[in-house]
Fold this protein.
Amino acid sequence: MSFILLLGSAFEWFATTKIGRIVGVVGVVVLLLVIAFFKVKAMGRAEEREKNKLETDKFIKDKEKIDADVADDSDAALADRVRPWVSKGK
């Protein structure tokens, strides 16, 4: 019960005194700025996740294309394909 009375007294102070109104307005402005900051931050994270997802999808498609391309090759054809990247074994 005393908490409700204390809350009522604080509200009355904010509403009736000049300094209380100033503190209240500044508090609301700060609160709105903090909310806006976190909203923008969340939008940036969502955009980055979408960019990463598109990049991952592209890599998966490329891998599937390469896998399909190599699947039908014989051992000799695969050896010819990788020859430029394999050392001579000296």
